[in-house]
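YM 10:42: RNA polymerase sigma-70 factor sequence, as discussed on the call
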Amino acid sequence: MPLRKKQYYQNTLLTDQQLWVTVQIEDCQIAFSTLYDRFWSLIYTTTFSYLNDREKSEEITLDIFLNLWNRRQYLQIRSFSAYLRTCARYHVYKVLKDSKENQIAFNQYQEVTTETSVSNLVLEKMEQEDIKSSVGDVLKKLSPRCQEIFQLSRFENLSNDEIAVKLGISKRSVENQITKALKHLRIAFGTLSGTIIFLTQWFRL
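YM 10:58: structure's back
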């Protein structure tokens, strides 16, 4: 890319949205680099404020921008600062959730996000997608029959009577398998409040 064009994007008065459109339409790495220069410190400082870990904060910052580039054809971003700050908080959530050593920090993070109302629709959607993926992994550890019954009940919304007729088994057998699956999910996810709230719709017979 010619130096003149690089200087143009770096010194331009183009808005974040205009730069992003350029990235999407032209696969322009220089426009993307300009966005990186504008926002890397926002992601890093947001992440570091929770983790107090320079290496992990740098890693998260790079991961977020790499994901932006890889998904540039599909992402519709209205506010870069809001979107990237949310991405940073979501990565913090995952790091703290997955680290037993950081359980206290995770609890404090949840309290802070609740008190300051930083959780928004984007964060909730990201969290739910992560939970759905985790639920799928947990269910794979159950027997094929148990998985099938849970799938029919919670994902296809069949009644217990309908499942019993469909599979040629008793209603009691259906209820037992659903109870087994729900118990397995409760044990797997423990006391993670966000996960339990998301799964509440399933905790019924």
